[in-house]
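Q: Sequence in, structure out?
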Amino acid sequence: MDKGQVEKHYSQLRLDPVSNDWVVIAVGRAMRPEDFSKNKREKIDVSEADCVFCNIATQSAPVLEYKNEKDEWQLVVIPNKYPAFSVGNELRKEQQGPYETMNAIGHHEVIIIRDHKKTIAEMSTSEVKLIIDAYQSRYLSLKDKKFVNYISIFNNYGKEAGASIVHPHSQLMAIPIIDPDLNRSLEGSKKYMDKHGQCVHCAMIEWDITDKKRIVFENKEFVVLCPFASRSSFEVRIYPKVHSAYFEKIDDQNKQSLAEALREAIQRIFEVLGDPAYNFFLHTAPCDGGVHDHYHWHLEIMPKTGTWAGFELGTGIEISTLEPDKAAEFLRLEKNV
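A: Exactly. Output:
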């Protein structure tokens, strides 16, 4: 049996070398994509006439707007009407007994494309690149703002993934703290660099490209893969092949290649799992003034293929019911790769 292959009938614990979290690869439960059909997203139809985003460019003052040759808006970025983080001039910290609080100062924006129904799986590479252009543009505009130490960019697709509005959109939050998940990744990548003198993500990418089993797609600049320690079935990550800690530094060619990789990844998930709900989000080095060259930025895509229950909630250990090798195989075969 090859190293890394799960022995038949036995589950396997796998350690993520970056976060130092364990996951369980539980075999013998779900064997094919159709076994996940029960997790298909609930389809909600909202007409364009009733959509709050369809005419948003004329109703709100965009902080960023891209137009086509007919002077029609194609993408706008607006402040969120109900922000989780709000612009402020003072960061107030308070101690309440054993508890510490601070006001949630920051920026919360929504990135909206014009087409009411077209998902990333159905877009052209140039349309996806426009979204990435907006991500980078807003990141660069906000990263040096007062109280901004980290910028989270994410996309919720489907009700089960937390999307409250069906019109395709992404969100951006520029916040004064670094989130715990990224903190663990920063600490893990720093420890690996100190011990081995190499980026842990680069080591994983090199292994996976050589091993080939978990590769879904690659072009000159990016690789799409199912991670060895996948937290859920059909988890996919997109990495730049050349080491880079900071997403905001990508050039136009890299944005084009990233757009192709993201479209391919979402399209394959769409076709294999039948238009599932999913989340994708950016993990990049924070903009807190620190030096984080040991980190390696990437995108993570998490289709909704399972539900946390007692074990996951009680231990924090996630269970994937399909081997990453098998998930990657399904995603490759769909495109005859």
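Residues 235 and 302 are 5 Å apart (CA to CA).
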